[in-house]
Amino acid sequence: MHDDEPIYNEFVLKFANVNGSGSASANLLCAKSLFRMGLPVSPKNIFPSNIQGLPTWYEIRISEAGNLARRDGVDVMVAMNPQTYEQDRDSVVSGGTLIYDSTWERDFERPDIHVVGIPIARLVAAEFSDPRQRQLFKNVVYLGALSQLIDIDIAVIEQLIGEQFKSKPKLIEPNLKALAIGRDYVSEHLEYPLRTRLRRAEKNTGKILISGNDAAALGAIYAGATIASWYPITPSTSVAEGFERYANKFRRDENGNLRAAIIQAEDELAAIGMAVGANWNGARAFTATSGPGISLMSEFIGLAYFAEIPLVIFDIQRGGPSTGMPTRSQQSDIMTCAYASHGDTRHVLLIPSEPGECFTFGADAFDLADRLQTPVFVMSDLDIGMNDWITDELVWDDKRAADRGKLLSADDLDEIKDFARYRDIDGDGIPYRTLPGSHPSKGAYFTRGTSHTDTGGYTEDGVLNAANLARIDTKFKIAAELVPKPVVKNFSASSRLGIINYGSTDPAVHDALNLLAQGGYGINHMRLRAFPFSDEVHEFIDRHDYLFVVEQNRDAQMRHLLIAEADIPSHKLVPVTNFDGMPLTADFVQNSVLEVLMRDERIAKAVAPPITAA
User: Which residue, among 239, 234, 238, has the nearest Cα to 216 in the 3D structure?
Assistant: First the structure.
């Protein structure tokens, strides 16, 4: 390709703004416009943990080829924050473009990039007198200018503005005016379009753009959840907010009465206590939190585990420990949630990799919790939860009925001579349970967090307590057969080298494996989707001599879990960890693998040529 030939639909577009400036709406509008043009996009919102005044970035990777992992280097930078001009300038790749507000001109001292100045503040001041409007419409002006510079379909943007302000029609005209200001300036003063530009594609048929938190909330609705008790914490808050929004749409009876409760508690302890009580009483209830909340909830988690009360917890992971990095993404709660609470506990973890699985796992978690009578964690993270992802249209089988597990009705109790809440009748470790008031004289028991007999009575008999703990552990072994199976892809039939990953690292691992295959390295792949580990996990590991375990935490938590729970020799599992809080890149994964292969001859011998580059 000659230097002057256009580059279509394969680049990174990034916006540098100030938090609280109203830029988020315009930047999201841009991402949605590209999606409606049929282009695969991966938007990432990189924002501070304060309310206003600190730098924030929004980057969109556009890839018609479908390579949607975050990528280092920016092709088109819209730099609207003088605080970060140097950082933003340095992130632009050679030959790329930097667009800035030239109301105050500046020399960026990068002769190898194309600098485009647009006097945005001056243009807005000439058309709008209200200070707040001037602030907000600067963002729409640069979007209008960008539509000319990289060929975003203006009709799509205008349609989205109409939809966004449908309930506030007075705002449609000034937004369209601001859009036109940016377009007109480019038309009259600049050469356009840029070398890096867009054209329509047809890659998004059957796809939607949705955040993981919204999808998880919708999964809870479809599962029949009626109660959400929560305490606000980034990045989980929008799970509860999404549930409230969907409940107002789908949980109203014929008279318009809301048939759900969304309760903002005074703290995380109260939030999980309400959820435990609601589930004990027969509702499907959940709480949503992040790492610090899990720490505070641990005692109640132990109560639900030992008293065998169904419970669903959405853990949207962020950087830690302590307050850590509230607005950065990590997979930092794996060990905490797997063994949450003191004493002997092991919990079911469902680990989605994108919003489609947040929806399905969000619904499945309630069935699993009821069936196993135990807490179930849905382990998302900030990247999946708060960013919009392209995923397949969500599908629900209307014939699907909630699996309430071994729940006895009044008629069932009439047939039972001797009900014992914690007695294992079927040998699967799961006893039968009742709900309060389900029978006028049968099925009542005392729920306690202390050691208890099979009828729920208090005991300090160590032998009985040990038997009870052993029975509960049986349920965990059964859970391995019920949780989602791993996703396996073989790049080489003869390769003895594999990669294991989970959650939001999947786009980066997917892209890296394809790059490695193109370079002649056939490395097989397994994406974990749940804990406990199913037989398929053990089979994949047994087929390989060495396995890279890719995760976003410092301490290689999933690797330790595999060593402890799957009895894998530690030398067989090679840690690949990233914990800077940013979404993982394919370059990091590829370079980490190649570095090990060049350094360790034993591991290098395990790799084989790929079947084909996928």
Answer: 239
The half-sphere exposure of 50 on its side-chain side, counting CA atoms within 13 A, is 9
Collapsed DSSP state (helix, strand, coil) of residue 576: strand
Domain 222-387: CATH superfamily, name plus number: Thiamin diphosphate (ThDP)-binding fold, Pyr/PP domains (3.40.50.970)
pTM of the complete model = 0.96
Three-class DSSP category at 528: strand
Can you give the residue ranges of every domain in the chain? Answer: 7-197, 222-387, 410-482, 487-604
Interval 43-97: pLDDT, tens: 999 999 887 789 999 999 999 999 999 999 999 999 999 999 999 999 999 999 9
Residues 6+ apart with CB under 8 A from 86: none
Domains 7-197 and 222-387 share a fold: no
Q: What's the gap between Cα 612 and its chain centre?
A: 30
Above 90 in pLDDT, residue 4?
Answer: no
What is the mean pLDDT of the segment spanning 26-41?
98
* Residues β-bridged to residue 497: 546
Question: Distance between CA atoms of 42 and 198, rounded to whole angstroms?
Answer: 15
| Cα separation values, 480 from 160, 380, 477, 517, Å | 45, 20, 6, 32
User: Per CATH, is 487-604 categorized as 3.60.21.70?
Assistant: no
Is residue 529 within 8 A of residue 578, CB to CB? The reply is no
pLDDT tens digit sequence for 566-589: 999 999 999 999 999 999 999 999
Nearest residue to 544 (alpha-carbon basis) of 497, 512, 591, 584: 497
Domain 7-197 has CATH 2.60.40.10: no
Q: For residue 352, which amino acid is it?
A: P
Summarised one tens digit per residue, pLDDT across range 435-487 is: 999 999 998 998 999 999 999 999 999 999 999 999 999 999 999 999 999 99
3-state DSSP call for residue 533? Answer: coil
CA distance linking residue 26 with residue 179, whole number of Å: 10
